[in-house]
Design goal:
This protein is an alpha+beta fold and 511 residues long. The protein contains 16 helices and 21 strands. The protein has 4 domains: 6-162, Methyltransferase, Cobalt-precorrin-4 Transmethylase, Domain 2 (2-Layer Sandwich); 174-230, no CATH class; 242-415, Heat Shock Protein 90; 448-507, Winged helix-like DNA-binding domain superfamily/Winged helix DNA-binding domain (Arc Repressor Mutant, subunit A), CATH 1.10.10.10. The chain has a 6-stranded mixed β-sheet. A hairpin with a 2-residue loop joins strand 16 (326-331) and strand 17 (334-339). Helix 8 (267-281) runs antiparallel to helix 9 (304-317) and helix 9 runs antiparallel to helix 12. It is globular. The two termini are 50 Å apart.
Length: 511
């Protein structure tokens, strides 16, 4: 359904005349050229509307409408879809058949496209190569025209300059954004908007965060809004998930003994849930004491900071258009993190592996900005250096970074510290597998956000601490603290012993 009602459009008070074209009848070439021009959105006004079956006078509708004959409506719709399929790249507007003042009209909404520039044939019926030549159509003012060479260059620059994470997802609605995720981000990033949470409506907050654009009827959600604040971004952005496979046998891929997991939700939650799972399932510290010196050696199976940075890099640099999900493969002696595509072809892989490469372009700049505000990433082009330092401090072997000749994929592998034997967990036995899966699910469900971790630390230090004292120490509102305390209870991390006034907290140790 098109958000803007036809009645409202025809009144002419909401949408500028330049953004509406009225067509007395079905003229395929003329309609396709207008659709193409609105999709290119040369003046950057978010496309426009077409009403077929309504005549016009100097851009204003003449009512009552002429209408489309009912026995021709199906044919017009079929032809419209057929000719839109021939726009390069393919572009399909939203359409509705409506009855208005006793006549049937075809109502089209053509929002700005995100895969252009778009071009269409001068004559959609032409078979002669000269007549069927495709041009880039634009509507810089009230007149539709073929773009000249300079305007074509402007179009390519326009579409190339808008990264995928900052583009609008026209299928998404405000209801697809979960307010709790937005509030958690505002508080965690110490945003100035945090103090306005209780008085601002969601459209206001999302617009202020620049994750949505104001429109004639509300707001359009950008992809960054879905990736950061939707429970199911993969509903709109295919494969916006993280897949993990944990191999329990030395045969690795040759064995049926493995655990598979899929992490969903906002990308920062995916990162944290994966990290939490690896932390409680794979990471282990070893202390080696020596008789001839006081200091002992301490090292981990894998350094946590290196894994965190590789996961963040995978989300930051991956391609979110139809592409494979991020994949994590845990082997007995190594962890591999895969994402597509690989580094830009201009990057020297030798320098990349040494942490000396500097990216010229970033695929998902907005994702980087949000993750940085949440302290999940640092400044640009420092990620690999951080990975190398973490591995060196832990005494781990150097990593291996691999890609193919076409840079279609990236494989980052870190290796088990030589002080540990290969990690074989789980069994082909059904009972043991069930136990492993239960532990996996518990690990994901038990993942804590920053506020929950802060509350847990305060309770560990002082089991008698009150809710009001936690509010004062963390400088957060009471409702936020109570919500996060409830989450800790639900995750079986804390229980209240005794009454609310005289009782105390008990921390339940996680496995």
């Amino acid at each position: 359904m098109i958000p803007l009602k036809l009645e409202t459009l025809l009144q002419g008070r909401v949408v500028e005349q330049d953004r509406v074209e009225y067509k007395k009848g079905w003229n395929p070439s003329e309609v396709i050229h207008t659709i193409c021009a609105y999709a290119n959105d040369y003046p950057n006004i978010n496309g426009g509307y077409i009403v077929i079956g309504v005549d016009e006078d100097n851009g204003r509708p003449i009512l009552p409408p002429e209408g489309i004959e009912e026995n021709k409506i199906d044919d017009v719709q079929k032809k419209l879809f057929e000719f839109c399929n021939k726009i390069e790249p393919r572009y399909i507007p939203q359409s509705e058949i409506l009855e208005y003042q006793g006549k049937m009209v075809l109502y089209l909404w053509c929002p700005a496209g995100d895969a252009g520039p778009y071009r269409a044939s001068r004559d959609v019926f032409a078979k002669n190569p000269n007549e069927s030549r495709k041009d880039y159509w634009i509507k810089p003012v009230s007149v539709k025209t073929v773009a000249n060479q300079n305007e074509i260059s402007d179009l390519f620059e326009k579409f190339n300059s808008v990264p995928f994470d900052d583009r609008v997802c026209h299928e998404a609605k405000v209801d697809d954004i979960r307010r709790a995720h937005v509030e958690d981000f505002l508080r965690e990033s110490n945003s100035a908007l945090a103090s306005q949470i209780d008085i601002m409506q969601m459209p206001e907050i999302l617009t202020a965060l620049e994750v949505a654009n104001p429109t004639d009827t509300g707001i359009d959600i950008r992809n960054i809004g879905l990736l950061m604040f939707s429970d199911n971004p993969e509903k709109f952005i295919k494969y916006a998930i993280t897949e993990l496979v944990w191999f329990h046998s030395s045969l690795e891929e040759g064995s049926d003994d493995f655990t598979e997991m899929t992490f969903t939700g906002p990308i920062q939650k995916q990162i944290r849930d994966v990290l939490h799972f690896i932390k409680i399932s794979i990471l282990e510290e070893k202390v080696v004491k020596y008789p001839d010196r006081a200091e002992a050696d301490r090292f981990f199976t894998y350094p946590y900071d290196a894994i965190e940075e590789l996961l963040v890099n995978a989300q930051f640099h991956r391609l979110y258009r139809p592409c494979d999900p991020i994949q994590i493969r845990i082997y007995p002696n190594r962890i591999m993190i895969c994402n597509a595509p690989g580094p830009d072809k201009k990057i020297d892989m030798k320098k990349f592996a040494e942490g000396k490469a500097v990216a010229v372009r970033y695929r998902n700049r907005r994702i980087g900005e949000f993750l940085k505000e949440m302290d999940l990433s640092e400044k640009m082009s420092t990620g690999i250096t951080k990975v190398l330092n973490a591995l060196r401090v832990n005494g781990s072997p150097p990593p291996v970074f691999e890609t193919d000749d076409y840079r279609e994929s990236m494989y980052a592998t870190i290796f088990l510290h030589e002080g540990f034997d290969p990690i074989y967990k789980g069994s082909s036995n059904d009972t043991d597998n069930a136990a492993v899966n239960a532990a996996v699910n518990a690990a994901v469900n038990a993942a804590l956000n920053n506020t929950e971790n802060d509350i847990l630390k305060l309770i560990v230090d002082n089991p008698d601490i009150t809710v009001d004292e936690i509010v004062a120490v963390l400088s957060k509102d009471r409702r936020t603290i109570q919500r996060n305390i409830k989450k800790l209870k639900d995750k079986n991390r804390i229980v209240r012993v005794g009454s609310d006034k005289t009782g105390s907290w008990k921390v339940i140790e996680s496995n």
